[in-house]
Amino acid sequence: MSYGLSPLRPVFALPLSFSVMSAPTLTDFVLANTTLAPVPLVPEVVLHSAAEAMDLWELTRHDQPPFWAFPWAGGQALARHLLDNPGLVRDRKVFDLASGSGLVAIAAALAGAEVVTANDIDPLALAAVELNAAANGVTVRTLGGDQLDSDAHGADVVLAGDVFYDAEITALVLPFLARAAARGALVLLGDPDRAHLPPGLFTARARYDVPVPLTLESTETRGATVWRA
């Protein structure tokens, strides 16, 4: 779910102490602050998840919540949909935008994707993706940095779970998704009725009731839709 942007865009950067951490140190931080647990809507997948959002957020000293430490509603819905419909990704190259914990990327790999790339600008997210992929016995490539000006590296399928949480992010993500769809990629989105989901641009494929952390969503269940661009 987490995404950040180039110097001309809003930057959601880790404080210097995290941004210069080596990969083993990032991995240690994730392991020290999470517990391996099944995803509520997708129990086939286990993730290193945090018990308390606010405590971990304070530890990271980050402008945004630790998106990598929780299975967000949009990602859960999209992951469930991929596992229930593996033909969407089987034997195809997949790009997961704003991967966060890697839940959606892992689901794509479990569903039989040929190659899965998980992109996120947060180094802690990339560390979490690698740990979570290993815990689920799948291979997921990680790619850091802002990729919104790319063509998703030619992926056959482009996935995005819960990316419409901010108006500025939405305005920058939409052209990326539109370019992928225009060149023939299958673009699938998971969204729990976030305020910035553009109306009329996508076709609904499925709807799920998703268990979510009360401290993050102010409710224990959210409805989430899987959309196709």
TrEMBL record:
Residues 1-22 form the signal peptide. Transmembrane segments: none annotated. GO terms for biological process: methylation. The keyword Ion transport does not apply. GO terms for molecular function: methyltransferase activity. Keywords: Methyltransferase, Ribonucleoprotein, Ribosomal protein, Signal, Transferase. It comes from the Bacteria. Pfam families: PrmA. The keyword Transport does not apply. One of its GO terms (cellular component) is ribosome. This is 50S ribosomal protein L11 methyltransferase. It comes from Lentzea pudingi.
